[in-house]
Amino acid sequence: MNRLAGVTSPYLLQHADNPVDWWPWGPEAFEEAKRRGVPVLLSVGYSACHWCHVMAHESFEDRATADQLNEHFVSVKVDREERPDVDAVYMEAVQAATGQGGWPMTVFLTPDAEPFYFGTYFPPSPRQGMPSFRQVLEGVRQAWDERRDEVAEVAGKIVRDLAGREISYGDGSAPGEQQLAQALLGLTREYDPQRGGFGGAPKFPPSMVIEFLLRHHARTGADGALQMARDTCERMARGGIYDQLGGGFARYSVDRDWTVPHFEKMLYDNALLCRVYTHLWRSTGSEQARRVALETADFMVRELRTPEGGFASALDADSDDGTGRHVEGAYYVWTPGQLVDVLGAEDAALAAAHFGVTEEGTFEEGASVLRLPQGEGVSDAEKIASVKARLLAARAERPAPGRDDKVVAAWNGLAVAALAETGVCFDRPDLVDAAVAAADLLVRLHLDDQARLTRTSKDGRAGTNAGVLEDYADVAEGFLALAAVTGEGVWLDFAGFLLDHVLARFTDPESGALYDTASDAEQLIRRPQDPTDNAVPSGWSAAAGALLSYAAHTGSQAHRAAAEKALGVVKTLGPRVPRFIGWGLAAAEALLDGPREVAVVGPSPDDPGTRELHRAALLATAPGAVVACGTPGSEEFPLLADRVLVGGAPTAYVCRNFVCDLPVTEADALRAKLTP
User: Fold this and answer.
1) What is the predicted pLDDT for the residue at 654?
2) pLDDT at residue number 232
3) Secondary element (H or E) of residue 146
4) Are residues 356 and 373 in contact, defined by beta-carbon separation less than 8 angstroms?
5) Plot region of 65 (φ>0 → left; ψ -120 to 50 → alpha; else → beta)
6) 44-65 burial, b for 16+ CB within 10 Å, e for fewer?
7) Largest CA-CA distance found in the chain, in angstroms, rounded
8) pLDDT score of 594
9) What pLDDT is stored for residue 322 in this prediction?
10) Distance, CA of 97 to chain centre
11) Fewer CB within 10 Å, N- or C-terminus of the chain?
12) 454 contacts 467 by C-beta, under 8 angstroms
């Protein structure tokens, strides 16, 4: 076992028995490189990454390659999910130098951590113009030994170029109607009207953009925005990217039609999409949206929940195909013969037609990814339910994909928000309970006595990596959703503690710009900063949204002003690259919509009339609106709201200089009053 044997990261532990003498990221590795006078190989990946596994098997498990690495390099392995800051800094360099990026990321550094040569996956032998990994190692070694001054000059120039990159923060004011309209126009131009989604292959679920579209429709009534959101959600739900048997979404589709996914399942994708489909149902009443939201929530609880109450990071794309080979998608795909083995000839024919399973197949070796090519409701619903149950039971007998049991604070915050809202919208208190349990774990294990967050935990043991901006912002978002759903003010308090850190340690006090790492965090060659969304909302946009929601709950002008400043970058980027700043656009929609807070009061949060009114208010408001519930006069209850609704016994409550005396106990009456 090498130096990775004692870490908590499942990805690093996958490399703990490599013949490569790996080091975890830290000053000791770079001190060793200085002592030996050799460069550093930085290899960055994550546990569910297919090509990371491929390169590990081909190169890092190979003794000859390991000997070459051990003799001429100090090799450092990084889990990008544990250290998104390290990943972000060097990925920026890779993309700037090569025009593309991906994982595994392979970067060669000086002992001062300055990059000078870049790549992603390298094969074990030359292929399609790509050098072998051992050829790369030999070339880097020769350059280091024979032209070290030139290498140092290149590394210094790269670091200077990175330091000179600036983000346009705008003029410090949030985007207005014009910028949001331009963003919508830009999305319309990139929209795929035949298949849904944006752009070509590969296609990623545009969850953050859909949130913007739904909020824009709620505010303006724009039919085009709703159509793009609704049609994209329908195409994804019918495609192979969605698990038609067990629920939940794969990471992306390799084609434009959502047919063949990259089969890894990430917590963050499913949390974001669960919330999207819940919001779509709330806007349209779509039965498909309801089904997908609940199936995705159930998938997260069933397959990703850890014994401690948190949620694991991911399921691998690969699994044993039954012959000892690790193959991508083996757990999920079917042949016609396999359907017959499980269902018998008659039901297999029905299943093949319903799920698009053919002799030719849509995947490798004649297998098919299950999808719904004919749409919803074509086949006998009762019969299909029986077929799905039997296929799911048979699939459970296959070797399952590996699970990354690491609990990431940010992604668990997204899951808390999704499960809380889905649970209350569909009257599923078990989902709300799951959200509360995950939030409890975050407080108990990830928060210290100064409300500072730890990024990860595993098996009930907190990691050592400090939380980054997205952790503080997304966990605050989850706590704010719980405060709205449960009416318990303690979650509002915890959100406030986290957002105080955002203002004090992550925000430039002059420009209002946000950094991904805290001012007192480990200093890298560049302090990472990126307002654009990737697979998850950027920490910048997520923080702006959480600050805005907290201000709505509490009336804090300081938090609202910080949110407005942070959204200045959306004013610049929204019209230019709307696909990559969807969460910022969604937050800007909530800001432009003006205050849309609903306060529900009653003799106690447990009073039946108050509870009925509270749930109805949550159902009747648009995405981005704030709903709070409490007892008049209690400290945690917000003093500001646009509407005050009183449940239980009639009372009077003062809000923004008017007195509301409105006893309402009928949900239908409430819907009528809240409907614009």
Assistant:
1) 30
2) 98
3) helix 133-146
4) yes
5) alpha
6) bbbbbbbebbbbbebbbebeeb
7) 85
8) 65
9) 82
10) 27
11) C
12) yes
Q: Report how far residue 43's alpha carbon sits from residue 4's, in angstroms, rounded to the nearest whole number.
A: 13
> Could you tell me the CA-to-CA distances from 401 to 304, 318, 330 in Å, in that order?
12, 6, 9
DSSP state of 577: -
pLDDT of residue 380: 83
Q: DSSP 3-state assignment of 488?
A: coil
N- to C-terminal Cα separation, the chain: 64
Residue 76, phi then psi, degrees to nearest 5: -120, 125
Does residue 149 contact residue 83 with C-beta atoms inside 8 Å?
Answer: no
Q: How far apart are CA 79 and CA 24, in angstroms?
A: 9
Q: What is residue 649's three-state secondary structure?
A: coil
Q: Give the model confidence (pLDDT) of 521-538 as tens digits.
A: 999 999 999 999 999 999
For 483, the token pair is: 């405060």
| pLDDT at residue 628 in the model | 67
Helix (H, G, I), strand (E, B) or coil at 196: coil
Contact by Cβ (8 Å): 200, 254: no
- Measured between alpha carbons, how far is 215 from 590 in angstroms, rounded to an integer? 7
Which residues are within 8 A (CB) of 365 and not within 5 positions of it... i.e. 6 or more apart? none
Which of these, 77, 74, 158, 146, lies nearest to 117 by C-alpha position? 158
Peptide bond before 202: cis, by omega within 30 degrees of 0?
yes
Distance from C-alpha of 634 to C-alpha of 638, rounded to nearest angstrom: 9
Q: State how far the alpha carbon of 537 is from the alpha carbons of 163, 261, 403, 631, in Å.
A: 24, 21, 23, 34
- Residues of the chain short of pLDDT 50, as ranges, are 632-676
Q: How far apart are the C-alpha atoms of 15 and 113, rounded to whole Å? A: 22
Give me Rg for the CA atoms of the chain. 26
Task: Give how far Cα 60 sits from Cα of 117, 468, 633, Å.
Answer: 19, 30, 63
In 3-state terms, what secondary structure has residue 56? helix
Task: In whole angstroms, give the CA distance from residue 424 to residue 430.
Answer: 10
Where does residue 609 rank: exposed (0-12), middle (13-18), buried (19+ CB within 10 A)?
A: middle
In 3D, which of 563, 583, 450 has the Cα closest to residue 507? 563
The DSSP letter of residue 5 is G
Q: What element of type H or E holds 600?
A: strand 597-601
Q: What is the pLDDT of residue 610?
A: 67
Beta partners for residue 554, in sequence order: none
Q: How far is CA 119 from the centre of its chain?
A: 25
Q: What does the block give as tokens for 430?
A: 């078990």
Sign of the C-alpha dihedral computed for residues 588, 195, 278 and 542 taken in this order: negative
**Residue type at position 380:** D
pTM over 0.85: yes
Q: What is the pLDDT at residue 670?
A: 44
Residue 190 structure tokens: 């990139």
Structure-token pair, residue 427: 């009257």
Q: β-strands 115-119, 105-109: how paired?
A: antiparallel
- The DSSP code sequence of 416-471 is HHHHHHHHHHTT-HHHHHHHHHHHHHIIIIIB-TT-PBBSEEETTEE-SSBP-HHH
pLDDT value of position 457: 95
pLDDT digits (tens, 9 = 90+) for 473-504: 999 999 999 998 988 888 999 999 999 999 99
**Overall size of the chain counted in residues:** 676
CB 235 within 8 A of CB 196: yes
Taking each helix axis from N to C terminus, what angle separates 287-299 and 409-425, rounded to the nearest 10 degrees? 140
**What is the per-residue DSSP string for 272-313?**
HHHHHHHHHHHHH--HHHHHHHHHHHHHIIIIIB-TTS-B-S
Name 165's Cβ contacts closer than 8 Å, sequence gap at least 6. Answer: 92
Closest CA to 594 of 261, 232, 220, 188: 220
Q: What distances in angstroms separate CA 346 from CA 370, 383, 442, 489, one per listed residue?
A: 18, 11, 49, 56
